[in-house]
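worker-03 picked up job from queue 'complexes'. Input manifest follows; three sequence lines, order preserved.
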Amino acid sequence: MSTGFFNELWLSKFMIFRGIYTCLFVSFSSIVIGTFIGMFVGLALTYGNRFTRFLARAYTDIIRGIPVLVLILTFYFVLSVIGINLSALQAGITSLAIFCSAHISEMLRGGLQNVPKGQIEAAKAVGLSFFQTFIFVSLPQALRQILPTWINTAVEIVKGSTLVSLIGVIEITLVMQQIIGRNFLTMQFYALAGLIYFLIGFSIERTGKYVEKKVAIK
Amino acid sequence: MTNRVLEISNLEKSYGDHKVLKGVSLAMDKGDVISVIGSSGSGKTTLLRCVNLLEDFQEGVIKIDGKEIGYEDVKGKRTKVSAKQVTKDRALTGMVFQSFNLFPHLSAAENITLALKKVQKKSKEESAEIAQHWLERVGLPDRGTSFPGQLSGGQQQRVAIARALAMNPKLMLFDEVTSALDPELINEVLDVIKSVAADGMTMLIVTHEMRFAYEVSNQVIFMNDGLIAEQGTPDAIFKNASSDRLNAFLKNTKF
Amino acid sequence: MGYHLDYAVIWRSLHDLFYGLGLDLYMALFSVALGSLIGLVVAFALVSKRKLFRVLSGAYVTFIRNIPLMIIILFIYFGLPDAGFTFGEIPSFIFALTIYAGAYIAEVFRGGILAIHKGVGEAGMAIGMSNFQIIVHIKIPLLIRSVMPALSNVYISLFKDASVAAVIAVPELTFQTRRINLETFRTIEAWSSASVLYVASCFLIAFMLRRVERRVAIPK
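worker-03 finished. Artifact:
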């Protein structure tokens, strides 16, 4: 790469840092909110009565059938029309969080249902209540089991956050486009964007693997 | 001498520092049935896998029909033969595994015909005929279209035996073929092996079924710690065991 | 609020929406087919005995899986022309989605290969099959059957990812929807219709893939 690139890189360092910060902020908020919502939907999906199960299933399947980009654009455009005014940032986080929640709920259901029936019966046999069985037997195992998938989802959310650039959130992708608009070093700065995302995703993956090992049942 | 099917001399095999076979020598003539007994870790399965070239070995020579397999002498250096030759050498022996290892996506008949068609380049019709013959031979004439998942363990193992026999091997190797079976399914498999032995097939059998070993073999080998500790007729081994180790082993196994 | 739902506009643009959907399917199908081939080869490299193969394939999978599809497509469509490689919008996108798909599909296949019982390969060896024959006649057929469910999920996901082509103005469904929204201001109608089309397509694809799964499933 030419010296021009490093010059330009130096000039735009603060922009890039802000972009990274926004990307991380959007991703982190979406994952936290999404996990929170997803837990409830997942519980409804697993333990709910017919009606709540149906609702949770419909929510999960519909959201999972819509591309993230469409979710983002829908929330951004539609909410303002029906009188809910969200900033681009808020709309972006909301849509990513909803996307995340649908994946979490499905994941949690899978994890909970994979806990062997015999264990649940054993827990009942020693007199644990439904709630106690859930907290002490099912959930700890389900959480361990969904951890790898949860990590994958987190990486997907970070990657999905590029799409909020399309509604004007100034995260890494949009920052790069702004920089490229100024200096036309297209390849270099998109490659840089790729590298930054890779480093973020890779760190999440590694941390996830580490945690997985720590909490693994030996 | 032309009758010698298998000749193993001074076979040594180690995994890293751990020596599993410490110099095993063994000869088998046509029609011999030799059972190999011994506790787990004594090297009996490894011995079988070496003969089928599923394992490399560091020292010694294995000859089938007088020809060395797996290794050759290249300018005085012991060299592994080409992958192609390994494949050819392997085809001289038929192996039946503890865990059946049928191909789950193929029907019983297809399990047998696959190698007939692909390795022996036989026609579809001929392969199908051979498969049917061997399925009948193992008592499963009407299960050719069944898939492994639809068969009992005993039936699967019989298909696996038919698959190996269909390749027309010089020597059959059985590696604890009943260990993964439910007790009530063991006999149907052992009966098939006995009837194949009665036909004059040369067989090397690793087994935990002492009564079966007693009945089927003309020689029994007791392996201990990577060596052949005792070898003799079934009567000599089971009725007149001399060494303490063999006695200790037999005491702990049911007959 | 003075908003009245009026789907008449959507009716009139239905042709555009379906055209867009068709384009999504076309691009996804193309990439899935190519990506599956790449994925299969890469998966065998991932479990290869040769370190070089493992390192190269591992780098490809780890790298691509951590880079957003949008960055890949921007790089290919806007960046590569600087290096003298210019592709049209649709080929660019198919290129990007194929590379992307290959990494995900490779992971699925890798899992499948590792799940194949070692003994099945040994049984193939024992009846005299060569390594190549074992891969072609035993491992690949077994693999495709066992990973089909996981593969279905990846395929559906890749179909949804085709929406990202809107970024480089490929006139697929999301792009069409955005255009209709901006031209007619029928925001709710436009986006709800797009969502319905996407969800329905996903269900349909899932349904068809499920049938394939059942057809190729190993009989039990």
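worker-03 released lock.
Chains A and B do not touch (no CB pair under 8 Å).
Chain A has a mean pLDDT of 91.
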